[in-house]
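User: My collaborator sent over this chain with a note saying "see what the structure looks like." That's all I know about it. Can you take a look?
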Amino acid sequence: ASYHLLVYHCLDVAAVGRVWWQASASLRRQFCHQSGLPDEQTQAWLLFFIALHDLGKFDIRFQLKARNVWQQVNPEADCFKPQENNNDYYHGPAGVYWLYQDWQDRFEGEQDDRDIFCDDDENESWQAWLSWLGPVAGHHGTLAGSSDKDDSRFGLSPGMVSVQGLELLKQARQAWLKALESLFLKPAGLTLEDDPPFMADGTLLAGFCSVSDWLGSASDEGDFEFQSQPTGDLQEWFESRLTIARRLLHRAGITGYQARDNPAIQNLLEEGYQPRQVQSLVDQLPLTESLTLIEASTGSGKTEAALAHAWQLIQQNFADSIVFALPTQATANAMLGRIEKAAPNIFEGSINAVLAHGRAGFQQDFIDLKQAANSHPAQGEKEARVQCAQWLAESKKRVFLGQVGICTVDQVLASVLPVRHKFVRGFGIGRSVLIIDEVHAYDAYMYGLLEEVLKQQRTAGGSAILLSATLP
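Assistant: Without extra context I'll predict from the sequence alone. Here is the result:
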């Protein structure tokens, strides 16, 4: 088929989200912590809004970007007047516009004082819906905001569509919300009359939706293939995509592993060595989301102590992975070798380690890890336990989505800078135990950014470990 029906694409992405949700107890804990709701209802709102991430595509301007397909599917649609150029229509923030316009009577009213970014004519209901829709609608790089709700760029002019056409588009959007209500909300005891819980920070949700969208988009490998004709019940379609989503997440290197039992520091030391100095204190650390500062002299075993505590947190479902940030490319390269030896002691299954800095592509150990992911040795997976899946290595935006990310500290600080898709980095860090080595070695500007990283980590319900030999 030459095109994919919009509702099927949205359900494909939701299927990835559903499988990922089920595979990660840590993510379930983090989302439930933010929502304040039990598992079932948090999952219902999560899948509902992920399936709404492309609400802005229910618009003639997006449909006409494939003009020949539109005319093929709608040969008698005479209430729309095609325009020559629709390239400046951005369907992400337009989804916020259309949700507000379609439900304007509900969303206008007395303002709640929780959100300083909301206008005077917005009420508590709109703030709650926007706290979910804004992050998922921003999946192309920049989070959608409240100002998009009345942006004149997204309105349809009489020269493009008749009154009848406007009503048809609105009916399509409302029908989609009703369909998603039946699919996801009602089984959890919710309806469209309910408001979702207010989400104070959208980083976790935006990153989760964006990665699910990348994986859930139709591919050339025959995974989520195009479907141009309706094929019956939407519930059946959604359920039929779960197996594909499971395979995609595993192949991408995001799932397919678990933490080993008995997370003891002894298991990270070479044979014959005993825990010493700070290493002997690891078991005294609390097993909860936390900020841990380890100061000890050079050579005292801070790295193994940090990895052991991270392992304990992962084993207790307080994180899914580890991000290890270092001050220089040379120290990051050296750490990759140490992690390659330690990771099989921490994780079972296929372990993906990603190196991230400006010259990572020239580092031979990392090149070998990428080649290991593409090889199929006769001895089986045990001969290539630590690797780097091709999908993870294709973009720096994905460096924190594997089981272990080793990077220079600037890669972590980029998660709070105004760059596109920064929330994907923030999401990857938030689902990990963040370890920052040589934390004394930075300047005032970097400390300002690091403080924002730690705030973001706390909001996500994540943990951080800071290491230093000498604290000023």
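A starting point for your reply to your collaborator: The chain has two domains: 6-252, 259-468.
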